[in-house]
Amino acid sequence: MTSKTDVVIEEKIKVDAVYPKMYHVIFLNDDVTPMELVTDILVAIFKHNPESAKEVTLEIHNKGRGIAGTYSYEVAEQLSIEATRIARNNGSPLRIQIDEAD
After folding, report:
1. How far apart are CA 75 and CA 77, in angstroms?
2. Which domains does the chain show, CATH number per domain?
3. Measured distance CA(60)–CA(77) in Å, rounded
4. How far is CA 43 from CA 1, 12, 24, 51, in A?
5. SS3 at position 2
6. What are phi and psi of 4, to 5 degrees?
7. Each residue of 21-54: pLDDT tens digit?
8. 3-state helix, strand, coil in the chain (%, to 5)
9. What is the pTM of this model?
């Protein structure tokens, strides 16, 4: 005896996707760090092209601060550590902060 049973389950699962908060990596202006070093860090670590790196560098210089990039917290923290390391290796007191994005 062969019996064929078809079972159809219509179940809807609601998925609530929670995206991680994003954070800005912010460079703060000082009177010691050369603008060329800031531009080089933006290109090397934050993957800016040379033109956008120069724009951000000028914003840092003129406004006192500028956003290098916006990332999840862990990525923002790691990139800021790498950028600080490069700055210190070049004798620069570059200050970087991480703020929650709006």
Report:
1. 5
2. 22-65+73-92+96-100 (3.30.1390.10)
3. 19
4. 73, 46, 17, 10
5. coil
6. -115, 125
7. 999 999 999 999 999 999 999 999 999 999 999 9
8. 40, 20, 40
9. 0.82
